[in-house]
């Protein structure tokens, strides 16, 4: 499904779903949960996570085809709700992971895929292909509460929130850089990952204490953490 490898202090998580769009179904979500649990357990000062994928898509969101293949509309609804519920701890794990996190967005990041990307500390994006997109308004689906909380935490412009959430705007890498969602845009998939690796190696040299880094991150995004059920942990300072 996916791969998790370590290069120096940088852990590289490469998404690989059942289809080329890396749609988030139970299998892929379970793998992400396992990978993030492994990273949390193996974090050391200097560890960094870099998440990416290959091809045209970073992730095109929840696997709606899987949900709709259920035996009845009620069962399809239950499947969709199970996807929404199972992604919540993935986003919570990213916001509490004891290391810096980078998303190298190689292509389209839509709906839950967009949420997965912006839950990282840094987002780098391929500029020649791909958009950030929240299509729920176009396909008649409400936004889960924690989606809204993360968007409000990561996207500070009310106008951008309106355009993404209510207008179904498709945002290019260049546009996302201008409004502060994306750190930088790059010419190709390869150059995006290379830039993300350079950033990862730079961050790794800081040798931050992971638990302190995670608690500071949580303190920066109280709205998202409250929606995700994350609480602050007391840490004894060393002075």
TrEMBL record:
Enzyme class, UniProt record, top EC level: isomerase
* UniProt pathway annotation: Lipid metabolism; fatty acid beta-oxidation
Return the CDD domains for the record.
crotonase-like (cd06558)
- Any one biological process term the GO annotation gives: fatty acid beta-oxidation
Citing just one GO molecular function, the answer is: delta(3)-delta(2)-enoyl-CoA isomerase activity
Signal sequence range: none
Please verify whether the record's keywords include Lipid metabolism: yes
What the entry lists under Pfam families is as follows:
ECH_1 (PF00378)
Which reaction is this enzyme known to catalyze? a (3Z)-enoyl-CoA = a 4-saturated (2E)-enoyl-CoA; a (3E)-enoyl-CoA = a 4-saturated (2E)-enoyl-CoA
Q: PANTHER family from the entry?
A: ENOYL-COA HYDRATASE-RELATED (PTHR11941), ENOYL-COA HYDRATASE_ISOMERASE FAMILY PROTEIN (PTHR11941:SF75)
Q: What is this protein called?
A: Delta(3)-Delta(2)-enoyl-CoA isomerase
The lineage is:
Eukaryota, Viridiplantae, Streptophyta, Embryophyta, Tracheophyta
């Amino acid at each position: 499904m996916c791969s998790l490898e370590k290069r120096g202090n940088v852990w590289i998580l490469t998404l690989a779903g059942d289809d080329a769009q890396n749609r988030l179904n139970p299998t892929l979500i379970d793998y992400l949960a396992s990978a993030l649990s492994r990273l949390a357990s193996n974090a050391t000062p200097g560890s960094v996570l870099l998440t990416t994928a290959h091809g045209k898509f970073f992730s095109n969101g929840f696997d709606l085809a899987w949900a709709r293949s259920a035996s009845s509309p009620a069962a399809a609804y239950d499947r969709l709700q199970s996807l929404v519920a199972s992604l919540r701890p993935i986003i919570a794990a990213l916001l509490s992971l004891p290391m810096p996190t980078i998303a190298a967005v190689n292509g389209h990041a839509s709906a839950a895929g967009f949420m997965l990307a912006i839950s990282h500390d840094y987002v780098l994006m391929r500029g020649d292909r791909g958009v950030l997109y929240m299509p729920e308004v176009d396909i008649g689906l409400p936004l889960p509460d924690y989606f809204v909380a993360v968007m409000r935490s990561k996207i500070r412009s009310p106008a951008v929130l309106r355009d993404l959430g209510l207008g179904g705007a498709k945002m290019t890498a260049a546009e996302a850089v201008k409004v502060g969602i994306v750190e930088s845009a790059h010419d190709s998939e390869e150059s995006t990952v290379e830039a993300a690796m350079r950033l990862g190696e730079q961050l790794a040299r800081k040798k931050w204490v992971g638990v302190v880094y995670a608690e500071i991150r949580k303190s920066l995004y109280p709205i998202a953490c409250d929606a995700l059920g994350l609480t602050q942990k007391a840490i004894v300072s060393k002075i």
